[in-house]
Automatic annotation (TrEMBL):
Protein name, UniProt field: Lysine N6-hydroxylase
GO molecular function annotations of the record: oxidoreductase activity
Organism: Escherichia coli
InterPro entries associated with the record: FAD/NAD-bd_sf, Lys/Orn_oxygenase
Pathway: Siderophore biosynthesis
Named cofactor requirement(s): FAD
Gene3D superfamilies linked: FAD/NAD(P)-binding domain
Pfam families: Lys_Orn_oxgnase
Keyword annotations of the record: FAD, Flavoprotein, NADP, Oxidoreductase, Plasmid
Family: Belongs to the lysine N(6)-hydroxylase/L-ornithine N(5)-oxygenase family.
Amino acid sequence: MQTVFLKDLVSAVAPTNPYSFVNYLVKHKKFYRFLTSRLRTVSREEFSDYLRWAAEDMNNLYFSHTVENIDFDKKRRLFLVQTSQGEYFARNICLGTGKQPYLPPCVKHMTQSCFHASEMNLRRPDLSGKRITVVGGGQSGADLFLNALRGEWGEAAEINWVSRRNNFNALDEAAFADEYFTPEYISGFSG
């Protein structure tokens, strides 16, 4: 992950908020280790742990609820969310649909040599001297390509990167991606 740690859940609008990444580091006794590492960015695992830590302390987050219907109540100016566990009203909705790894039918029988990016850390294949192809132009494809190029799993003889898109998605730290965190950009969505 290439995200600077200050782009957490709250720091841009409330730096002293108890849900800041810095507070997470303090609470988990990791602050000084992080400070002396001189890292500007955070690993996906660390950021995921931070998000889990923040979510565990909030009583208005619901996970693993099957959403059956969403309507907007114009009078109340709220969403009515009907789930398998009940009904909820909300001003805002954030849906996590989960990820289902997708492999095209033509490669499903090639389980040893062709697999989804989500399996890479479990398999940790030895790519030394092999010709490999990364399929997909998104963030995961970019991460796999970069790590393969750096020899994370051995030095490959050849690395190809293909995508059905006509471009490759920018990494999280691209200049325009930084604009997502500015008040001006956010106000364009919130009015």
